[in-house]
């Protein structure tokens, strides 16, 4: 439970946040009656819904507070949620649909592949997009998507953390690097392989292989891991494939350590893998539970929905705050004006006081390592 002090801090910051948004009422014309339409895109059904639905709920909680305080620029905020099932081929339709609904800005998408597929469509429409979870480095580093922002660090930082942890903490020397062939998983795996190969002989990649998403049987790759003598696996991808691989490894009594990413650092992985999940390592957004705003946002979720928030909830909460704060500061929903506000203004969020660099990456966010212990992910203190 959040203590009285935490609740008071939360109320003070929310009040200040909403006051900052209300500033737009005085500086705007006061004539607009159309709502500010916030598109929320992501996996809202299917195997990866546990990643996308928390973002919808985060947006709902922030928007409820904002609208209760009078909205922004004299306008209420309306959420328009669209499901892309984390599939690139559907994400393009999702983006087109949101544009047809005349959204002013977009929160999402969730998966890197889906995000990449949709970004060009949003760019052509002049819409700014912010993801709480799409970590592929090229999304900001390529320069192709100046309309894209995110409240999570990129996979090169995540892969660096995983490799350093494997080498310096776990002291392994033979590593199998696997991925799910997608933009997110393969991108992370390629960085991991690169960092291992640059370790001056400290470790070596004994197997590098992609697996087919959705397959029932991964015994062939498990056998390859065994034959390669891998002491650890670094897997780039999501929980459906990770859970099956881990289960099949353990059922074959293969003790190889399993290290993965924020696509696996989700309670759904633990529920599916069951007892076999214990001992698995995964990187994920830095633990901010000591931040009173994070604790209070979590408590608000539990009160509203009767459950603990899921993956990327706090990143999505922060992204929603950052987007709406930018609208208030810019005095409009023009993407160029929003971009200037995001890069020049700081906003207090559950992730801390954040702003964005020239590429669109959030300043002040990062990753931590976690391990499943007794059915719960626990941060590994190094």
Q: Notable features of this structure?
A:
382 residues; alpha/beta; Rossmann fold; 2 domains; seven-stranded mixed beta sheet; elongated
Secondary-structure blueprint:
Layout: H1 4-27, E1 36-42, H2 49-68, E2 77-83, H3 88-100, E3 105-107, H4 112-125, E4 129-131, H5 138-141, E5 148-150, H6 155-169, E6 174-179, H7 183-197, E7 204-210, H8 219-228, E8 232-236, H9 239-251, E9 257-260, H10 267-273, E10 281-285, H11 292-305, H12 313-330, H13 335-344, E11 347-349, E12 352-356, E13 362-363, E14 367-373, E15 376-379
Parallel strand pairs: 1-2, 1-3, 3-4, 4-5, 6-7, 6-8, 8-9, 9-10
Antiparallel strand pairs: 10-14, 11-12, 12-13, 14-15
Give me the secondary-structure category.
alpha/beta
Q: With helices defined by DSSP (H or I, 4 residues minimum), what is the helix count?
A: 13
CATH topology value of the largest domain: Rossmann fold
The CATH architecture assignment of the largest domain turns out to be 3-Layer(aba) Sandwich
Question: In CATH's first tier, which class of the largest domain applies?
Answer: Alpha Beta
Oligomer: single chain
Low-confidence stretches are 1-16, 22-32
Question: In angstroms, what is the radius of gyration?
Answer: 21 Å
Amount of beta strand: 15-25%
Counting DSSP E segments of at least 2 residues, the number of strands comes to: 15
Q: Walk across the major sheet and give the strand order.
A: 7-6-8-9-10-14-15
Fraction in helix: 40-55%
**CATH homology-level superfamily of the largest domain:** Response regulator
Number of domains: 2
Global shape? elongated
Give the helices and strands as they follow along the chain.
Answer: HEHEHEHEHEHEHEHEHEHEHHHEEEEE
Distance between the termini: 27 Å
Mean pLDDT: 93
Please give the largest β-sheet: 7 strands, mixed
